[in-house]
Design goal:
It holds the Pfam family Peptidase_S24. InterPro entries: Cro/C1-type_HTH, LexA/Signal_pep-like_sf, Peptidase_S24_S26A/B/C. The chain is of the alpha+beta class. The chain folds into 2 domains: about 80 residues, 434 Repressor (Amino-terminal Domain), CATH 1.10.260; about 110 residues, Umud Fragment, subunit A (Ribbon). About 35% of the residues lie in helices and about 20% in strands. The protein is built from 9 helices and 9 strands. Strand 3 and strand 4 form a beta hairpin. The protein is elongated.
């Protein structure tokens, strides 16, 4: 698997600049054989080289930050939402394994989203078994009060991920199923949350992608 910095550079080349590897190397004065070996996984892209390539792209006037190449945060010439609004992704075929993998790659490696697959019907009718939801790595200390009574994605102390409604009662934090009869454990009291996020992107098991929160990348 390519490292995430290289995946972002490749995504930038193919999806945003729409350049072949040969044209990309010619435009930004890079060694074609070197970049080919890196994209094929035969060589590792060191951070210093990644920053050098980013600098060359910046010098051509493209709004791209070192931070985005390294982490997925920061300035990028196009937002993940703009990508998702294209027919290539919003209408992708659920039965196509390659397309499903590429969608997850874009959202979790190119852009820094977290995702969870829904495996029960405890949050119907909003979420159904087979849906996929995406959020961001949110700081619990800043987001809990704001997200009270909302359906969230939360990673808790045992590294288990819940997609449930957040309830705060007398400073106690609970993750609650909307349909209490669809699960054996409908109310979970949480002592520690590692990260928490609203649902930003919802991919129904059969249906289009829904962008639920207009969050900047």
């Amino acid at each position: 698997m390519l490292n995430e910095s290289l995946e972002r550079l490749k995504f930038l080349r193919e999806e945003i600049l729409n350049l072949s590897l040969k044209d990309f190397c010619s435009k930004f004065s890079l060694s074609y054989s070197y970049m080919r070996n890196i994209e094929c996984g035969e060589k590792v892209l060191p951070k210093s080289k990644s920053l050098e390539i980013t600098k060359k792209i910046q010098n051509y006037g493209f709004n791209i930050s070192d931070e985005w190449i390294e982490t997925g945060y920061g300035s990028c010439p196009i937002s993940s939402f703009s990508i998702l609004k294209t027919n290539k992704y919003i209408n992708f075929d659920d039965t196509n394994t390659e397309q499903r993998h590429w969608l997850k790659t874009i959202l979790t490696r190119i852009f820094p989203y977290k995702y969870a697959c829904i495996s029960t019907n405890e949050m119907m009718p909003f979420l159904k078994n087979g849906d996929i939801v995406f959020g961001v790595n949110g700081d619990p200390s800043k987001n809990l009060e704001r997200l009270n009574n909302e359906i969230v994605i939360a990673r808790v102390e045992d590294n288990f991920t819940y997609v449930r409604r957040l309830r705060i009662v007398e400073n106690n934090v609970f993750l609650v199923a909307d349909n209490l009869d669809k699960t054996d454990d409908p109310v979970v009291k949480v002592n520690k949350i590692n990260w928490i996020s609203p649902i930003i992107i919802h991919k129904k098991h059969v249906g289009k992608i829904e962008i639920l929160e207009n969050q900047n990348d």
